[in-house]
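Convert to structure. Protein one:
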Amino acid sequence: MPIIVNLDVMMAKRKMSLNELSEKVDLTLSNLSILKTGKAKAVRFSTLEAICEALDCQPADILEYRK
């Protein structure tokens, strides 16, 4: 898939665990894990907004397009 999810990279840069991010964005661990591993088929803008707010980053820091 040409869309790469760099959520784990941003979490590492912010020294935030999956559990901590899950609590901050009010998502289950399993849903966040699916997103983090790149297995998600879609992501809601509200979810992306919450993640960006919690990690103090931009959507482009999390999602990347590669041919």
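Protein two, convert as well:
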Amino acid sequence: MTGLVAAERGLGEFVVVDALPEFVVVAFAAVTHLADPWFLFALLAVGYWFATEGVAGSPRRAGATAIAAVTCAYAATALGKAWFAVPRPPGAMPPADVPTWLPALLSGWYEAQVLSDGFGFPSGHATGGAAAYLAVALLYDRFWTDRGRYLAAGAVAVAIAASRVIIEVHYLVDVLAGLAVGAGTVAVALRLAGDPRVRRSTDPAAAAGPTAALNPAPAFLLAAVVSAGALAVAVAGGHTGEVVEAGIGIATGAGGAVGWRLVEGDEPAVPVRVAVPALAVTGGLWVGAYSLAGTLPVTLVATTAAVVAVVALPALPERIGAMSGARN
């Protein structure tokens, strides 16, 4: 609802930011990559495909639920940006103030980091980063210690949020809201998935551990529904960029739910010989989805296919083996 979040919502944070040494700003421009959507989904896909029982009791269920949680977080971000429709700080607009000591190769990279268009509230990087690293800390519950995982997740999420303010593409309010939304969507996703730590579960399998009976499908479907709401708001407001993001959210949520129906949840880790070509194919579909953003139906089809492939991949080796056995 436009008006609830002011366009000029700074709290004086950029006075502090402007006093920072240039090398600190450049360093945080690199930190922000830790919550780029491509990086987070690649990280989560690798965890989903390759994690063993040494890091989670049910690694496939844990990994798929982490992906679903982050999908919900991005859906909430798309809805929030379309709903509030407030601009980014003036520092996100060109021209970029590129340090003169940066090599030419890095100047273009730095400029791309510190210039951002679209709406600013809440911060998508802060939301996605908080959701991804918190979900990993909660769901990969056999890796390291609880305290170590939670502290690491919190530190990374805060560093990402700080980076968005330091490179002046978000106000402090934007990233604080993003951290809250990210944490909240993880709690909702885990509850929908049946995590016994946030929901009293009647499934006997839950006694085997917090990830043993997880079902990420409801969380994927929630992401699709919220993204549909974001699409309606974006269309009504004429926000073209948010229309594309919401459409991708619908496709990601629906694709995740469909892909999960094709797996049992107890599959072993994906063999490297299967994962490498699958990564090339799904990565190509994902890049194509964004590069063809002007043609929304093509984007939706490409995104859906990519997510179905990512989530269904653990079942592929067994299905190939069964088909080969049937032929023999």
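The chain has a mean pLDDT of 91. The chain has one domain: 15-327.
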